[in-house]
Specification:
Length: 255
């Protein structure tokens, strides 16, 4: 059984490319390509997106329908940040209500040339879900590497035992790759993740998810991305296939 969603989005604040995780977005933080809006000791940024499907670690949480997403972030010169991100859900197929709201905070920064880190905690909230426990908390960490036009991120996310996870925990590990095509606004992206725990559809609680795609800057704050996304799954006959492979297109803007 699956009980939750994006966020990581678990968290690639330091990656300059975006995968429709959280999010986690995947994901970069539960927000797509964030740009600074103000200069000084505190910076504020915002983002909005329209995506053909909301996929969290390969799992469809919008019932194959369009999702509206957006968030705000506040960062400091020292690298600490807090933020929130939200997405529409399909309450009929998913069962978590019509909205997901993620609240997160952490620290990100460079500790060597071409080497960066991001650590934090994120809460996945479902304010209009029906009876039962759905909200849960996850901690995350990632290391980013930059070399020329290429970037790579390796990260983990861990949700300790919680009632919303059936009294069990969940461990997720992933890697994201991005390569900019010289002389163009286009980047090629790739993602591979592995889940061990409650947040899968498999009998043994283990599953892989993946995506490959591209993204491009359009004009000003606008960008577009397209990715082929999938995940391993074990779906009962006649049930909705949350992990069926899909082509996902996202139009986003950051401010």
């Amino acid at each position: 059984m699956l009980t939750s969603s994006r966020g990581l989005a678990a968290s690639l604040v330091l990656a300059s490319f975006t995968l429709s995780a959280p999010a986690f977005a995947q994901t970069v933080l539960p927000a797509d390509e964030v740009e600074e809006q103000t200069e000084g000791p505190i910076t504020i940024s915002a983002n909005v997106a329209l995506t053909s499907e909301y996929r969290f670690r390969g799992v469809d949480l919008s019932g194959g329908e369009i999702a509206i997403q957006g968030g705000f972030d506040l960062g400091t010169e020292s690298g600490f940040y807090v933020g929130t991100w939200a997405s529409s859900l399909d309450e009929t197929t998913v069962g978590f209500g019509s909205t997901e709201v993620d609240i997160y905070g952490g620290w990100s920064g460079d500790f060597a040339e071409g080497l960066s880190a991001d650590v934090g905690v994120i809460g996945y909230l479902y304010p209009d879900a029906g009876p039962g426990d759905f909200d849960y908390v996850e901690v995350y960490g990632s290391v980013g590497f930059a070399f020329g036009p290429a970037e790579a991120t390796v990260g983990v996310a861990y949700a300790p035992e919680q009632d919303s996870l059936g009294g069990t925990d969940n461990f997720y590990i992933y890697t994201d790759l991005g390569v900019g095509i010289p002389g163009t606004p286009v980047s090629v992206t790739g993602h591979l993740g592995y889940t061990d725990g409650f947040l899968t559809f498999t009998n043994d609680s283990k599953a892989f998810d993946w995506s490959i795609g591209a993204e491009a800057e359009l004009y000003g704050p606008l960008s577009i991305s397209a990715a082929y996304v999938g995940a391993e799954g074990d779906i009962p006959v006649g049930a909705y296939d949350f992990v069926d492979d899909a082509f996902v297109v996202t139009l986003s803007a950051s401010f």
